[in-house]
Design a protein that fits this description.
This protein is of the alpha/beta class and 107 residues long. It contains 6 helices and 3 strands, in the order ααβαβααβα.
Length: 107
């Protein structure tokens, strides 16, 4: 779990500045709390090979589930959904927002 959270922290730091301020930030502590309370849907957008090597426990593999991802998201559009990936070209937000119905859409 420590390795996954360290990776998540690095992924948050690597998100391009273009998204800064567009979506609310979540602290590592708040994310850990939401995960433990089962109040968040976490989506790994690193690709299936990376997912197989390690991911945040309970995270959904976007690549393996992209065709049915909308059905895996909470029905409540106000629900917390966190997508993460590592690297300066991360496009987690863009991929999620292209879904026909996405709780990742800002309210």
């Amino acid at each position: 779990m420590k390795k996954a959270l360290a990776f998540l922290a690095a992924a948050f730091l690597a998100i391009p500045a273009v998204f800064a301020g567009e979506y609310p930030d979540i602290s590592i502590e708040d994310l850990k709390k939401a995960i433990s309370e089962k109040k968040v849907t976490v989506i790994d957008v690193n690709g299936s090979k990376s997912y197989e090597k390690g991911h945040i426990p309970g995270a959904i593999d976007y690549t393996a589930n992209k065709e049915a991802l909308a059905s895996k998201l909470p029905a409540d559009k106000g629900s917390l959904v966190v997508a993460y990936c590592g690297g300066p070209t991360c496009s987690a937000y863009a991929k999620l927002l292209r879904l026909p119905r996405s709780s990742a859409t800002p309210t």
